[in-house]
Amino acid sequence: MNDSLTILYIEDNADDAYIFQEFVRHIPKQIHIDIKPTLKEGLSAIESNSGYDLILVDLSLPDSRGLRSIEKIVELNSDVPIVALTGYMDKSIALNAIKLGAQDYLMKGDYNEHVLYKTFTYAIERHNIMKEVLVKQEQLEQAQKIAKLGRFEYDYASDQYYCSKELIHIFGFPEDTCLTAKHYWGSVHTNDLEIVKQNVVKHLQSQKPFFLDHRILMADGGLKYVRVAMESVFDSKGRCYRSMGTVQDITKDYNRSELLRRSQERLDMAVRAGNIGIFDWNLGTGKIVCDETIYDIYERKYGEQINFAEVFVESLNPETKEETLKNLDTAIKGKTEMELLFDMVLPSGTKKYIQTIAQFQLKDGRVARMFGMIRDVTARVEADKLRDSFTKTLEAEVKTRTLELQQTKDDLEIALQTEKELSELKPRFVATASHQFRTPLSVIQSNVELISMLHESDTSMDEDLFNKAEKRIENEVKRMTDLMDDVLILGEFSSNQYQSTFKKTIL
């Protein structure tokens, strides 16, 4: 308590106020008393002055009588301790005043300086303790709200639950609900009801703590998962008369656990589908923990006690063993993630290609643990080899075909050039041929006209002239025949139909 006190005394009786002040003067402490004759003035003083350490109020005031004065003061300011003063011998009124928020009560004429000092001291200390308790209570309720943890105490005789606000909130009841056993059992999910009953009976029989997770149904049809922890108190005959415990809403945790479980199931399915093996290698002890897939890859019986480090080294392909161990050593020394592809030959003679992906865990700057996965990629590697072989064959075929096409292209270009040249020769050939045919034809025509004139002439024909004309016609016809033969031969050459015949000739 402080070295000095400031007390608000609401009292309308001047004699009672005087007597009170006289007793206070004998208290070995500096005390200032502010007297107000009505509740209205007292409330106004409380509003304007927040420095009061204690409030004394008479329960018989001109403007307020009874417990109403306590209610109004508490409603206005509950931070200052209150002591009720009454001139009546009815202690029930004083006790009800304490229930409403007063820290103590005094009977007028039944106190002295010692009683007053003790009352002041205890009232202030109790009030401070209650404030601390309320703060702790609020902190506890806040913590319970955050943790979604409600507490309860059940009295079997009265069938009443004394529980926290959070527990009522967890079950979804209105805050003013007075819980009974009926509320609890009515909330338990029907599929969980029997198992909950069995566990409660077992708890009452064994008198041991009770722990159980189960579902509850909300009034709005929602579903929650709760974790109940309970202990009970038993009498000498083993009968339970009180139980207390906690109920925690674990719906989110359950949902997360369920998602994790389903994710693990999907992972296991993916591992099995992908023929992936998981391992954990302690490089300090040399112990390797493997799953069933790795046993299958190495053609071993699952659970067989074997040294996988030795099996790994012994199974490596002798042709690539040195390179594989070198790559592994480099990865470990580099303290990095490792991705390694190696081949091995098993005792059965089976050759496999294995892909390993692993991470390292360091201890004191050295690799102490390696964990990761291995996968049999033999089919993929063989397929890659077949693909590479096919690709090389295809590339060779494409190259050969490209050369052939290039040669064909060159031949076509030559043929086109030849055709072009022939096309250019045709007009000249036609002009020349036309000239060559025209000349003998002109000669034939003129000689025919000459012969015709000789026949038509009255004079006898000149036989010599006629013979010359006939000879010229004969020569020109032969010439034309030769020209025609030459043209036919050229036509056969251009269409590649000329059949050459060779004769031996002595030069």
Spell out the key features of this protein.
single chain; 507 residues; alpha+beta; Rossmann fold; Beta-Lactamase; 4 domains; five-stranded antiparallel β-sheet; 52% helix; 23% strand; elongated
Your description of this structure?
The protein is of the alpha+beta class and 507 residues long. It contains 14 helices and 17 strands. It has a 5-stranded parallel beta sheet, with helices on both faces. Strand 4 (60-61) and strand 5 form a beta hairpin. The model has no long low-confidence stretch (mean pLDDT 83).
Please tally the helical runs, counting DSSP H or I stretches of 4 or more residues: 14
CATH topology of the largest domain: Rossmann fold
Basic shape: elongated
CATH architecture annotation of the largest domain: 3-Layer(aba) Sandwich
Strand content: 15-25%
- The strand order across the widest sheet is 2-1-3-6-7
Structurally, the number of domains stands at 4
CATH superfamily of the largest domain: Response regulator
